[in-house]
Amino acid sequence: MLRSPLDTHIKELLTENPALGVFLDAIREFGGIIETQSLFEHILNVCIKIFKAEGGSVMLFTGTNKEMVIKSSEGLKSEIIDKAKVCYGEGIAGWVAQALEPVLIIGENTDPRFTSMKDKARVIKDSIVAPICLGKRVFGVISLNNRINGTFTEKDKELLMGVAAVAAIAIERMELMSKQQQNIDTAEIITNVSTALGRSLNEKEVYRTVCDFLKQYMDFSVFAIFFIDSKTMIYTPIEPISDSLMEDVKRHFSNFFNSHSGQKISPAELTASMESDFPPLKSHEQLHIGSFLDMPLSAQDKVFGDIYIGSTGMDAFKETDMQVFSIVAEQAVNAVRNASLYTALEKKYKEASETLGKMKAVIGGAGK
User: Fold this and answer.
1) What is the CATH number of the domain that holds 72?
2) Tens of pLDDT along 232-268?
């Protein structure tokens, strides 16, 4: 049976270091790890042990942008970790991610492609950097610095590419698991919120149900719903509030009204009604909304209101918060419409009952 150069190198390494078999077993464990940060740490720890490196790091691209950040590291100072952000194609790590090729550096870095990445604060006698990729899809890079015994070799570079490929498979598997779990969670959220809102027969109950449901999933300072026709804002403070914070909320809704109604009103012209069992705690600070989420409420292509949560924190809401908010807001649209219909029918029934009562009284009086 023919053996690949990688198989031959692994066999040589096993001969030189029998304990390496334990580390290869650890690599196989990549697929059994289900927690993201644990996976990144395990990948780095295994590589440091296999290659007897003093330190290293795992850098991954974040979100949809082309910027890598350190997800796990060993031997790096915290200030370096916090500031380390590498763009696609930038420096050693960026070049490796773009070219999908590993790099081996021995001694002083004189390669003109990477001279801008010299770090005078750290002494690096040798290093290897390999892309974590599957085909043309790159997740990030893994870097190892300063082999304890001797220096890194071309064979080490080849082996690190193999380890990085296994790591890429594990990361992709983790992504798929996350998406599947997200789909499960989404279905669960829709079921729970629609069930809860289905029991809400008036607008006040809908309002409280939506607010209580959102509080289970995220932190925010104030919750509010605005209705265009009545120019009314109903709000619930979750945290201590100030007049300046409420002015921010009113300003948002006045701008919303002006953009959807074709009319112009100022924040002071809005009707504000608080929905809470307890009086709000007043803050002595001049608080302001640092970030918010909102979604227009619409039916038959007509916008009739807006649902809103605001926080005093900057960048307070994560992508998962936005997804939950979007799901709940969409369910709230139907609940508000149903509650309005129920209220209207209840009013008509009451009016009809009163009219029938008057008619009976007239008939009864005429019969005497």
Assistant:
1) 3.30.450.40
2) 999 999 988 889 999 999 999 999 999 998 899 999 9
Structure-block tokens of residue 229: 């026709």
CA 126, CA 215: separation in Å to the nearest integer? 51
Task: Name the residue among 65, 32, 63, 25 with its Cα closest to residue 46.
Answer: 25
- Mean pLDDT, residues 286-293 taken together: 92
Q: Are residue 252 and residue 170 in the same domain, yes or no?
A: no
The count of domains in the chain is 2
**What does DSSP say about strands 271-274 and 232-237: parallel, antiparallel, or unpaired?**
parallel
Does the pTM exceed 0.70?
A: no
Q: How far apart are CA 359 and CA 363, in angstroms?
A: 6
Handedness of CA 57, 58, 62, 67 (dihedral sign): positive
- Tell me 306's DSSP state: E
In a domain, 184, yes or no: no
As given in the structure block, the two tokens for residue 246 are: 């409420």
Binning the chain into helix, strand and coil, the percentages to the nearest 5 are: 50, 20, 25
Count CB neighbours of 329 within 10 A.
22
